[in-house]
Amino acid sequence: MEIEAKRWGFRGKQELNAASASTVRAYLNQIIGRINKDNSSSVIRLGHGDPSHFPSFKTTPAAEDAIVDALRSAKHNCYAPSAGVLPARRAIADYLNRDLPCKLSPDDVYLTSGCNQAIEVAINVLSRPGANILLPRPGFPYYESCSAYNHLEVRHYDLLPEKGWEVDLDAVETIADENTVALVIINPGNPCGNVFSYEQLHKVAETARKLGILVISDEAYDNLAFGSTRYVPMRVLGSTVPVLTVGSISKRWIVPGWRLGWIVTSDPNSILKKSGVIDSIAEFLDVSSDPATFIQAAIPQILENTKEDFFSKIISTLRECADICYNRIEEIPSLTSPKKPEGSMFVMVKLNLSMLEDINDDMDFCLKLAEEESVVVLPGIAVGLKNWLRVTFAIESCFLQEVLGRVKAFCQRHAKKQ
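Above: the chain's sequence. Below: its structure in token form.
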């Protein structure tokens, strides 16, 4: 029997629809839904930065042992402090202190459930009526989603493909105003695979200081750099401009499912403290969830016991895969990449639709590629660049050769007749 009421006093939250519609997962779910189940070809997914399924990207035994030791000790089945357990925060501060002119303390480190929650913390803390934030285009759409949910206006500045994805600093100054709170950079770059030079970061810091805004530095792929540009963290410029660094162990240790991240304040001039941002971070964490305590407890052992040869092997593998990906894409006339990736796990690829038949745009390309070849890539529209593609190269090199062969066959099949 159906219960009748004069009026139900609840309804779904419409803001969540707008926030979720632009996520990477939302786009990939649409594309995966188009895979032809009758196609005998194995499904290969190049749309997501999670290489943990592949043997070449297995995490180090030192990390696994640290988790097992922490769990079996039975000392970490309790709730953790809101900011995280002190030994983990101290270990992360030490890990991030390399080459820093102004050293971090454990009090500068706050543990989060992965880098995504660190982004949520930053966006929530900075949101206020009428405020806006400057985001890169192309970029990581989770920032747009969090901003939409928190009613924080988004203004985009461009990364310039013809200049190796440098920040368009003239555009930054043009779009900023007295209500701008922060500028986000992602280094190494997701989705572009670029690595910012120290000179570029210094210009970003000087521009942000001139505008009176802080920098959110997304370093989810920190140290995953394998090109000619040396990786430099934005926090080395904390004395020039206040920096909030968001990061995690997910990518460098190839453990995205462990969900251990951080938000770190680099602020030797105490500007964040005086403005109340530090207090707001702590207050937000008081009302949000924590990463699992036993994973927090494993962090000191993970950071101390991971040998350099593990990192070297991952970097070597990424370099090999990036070379294969870039070179094979160059063989496909309708696809171009303006710069060989130097970091992270992605490359941006431009579609030349004038050379393709029956392909309307990047989303159409991805849907038909999934249906015909069981290959999943992310349309550029998902990261802010229409008629581009974001391709993940962090998979087994043999699979990468195969999948790019399928992409080439697809493009040949849809090539316009001369």
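The CA atoms of residues 83 and 110 lie 5 Å apart.
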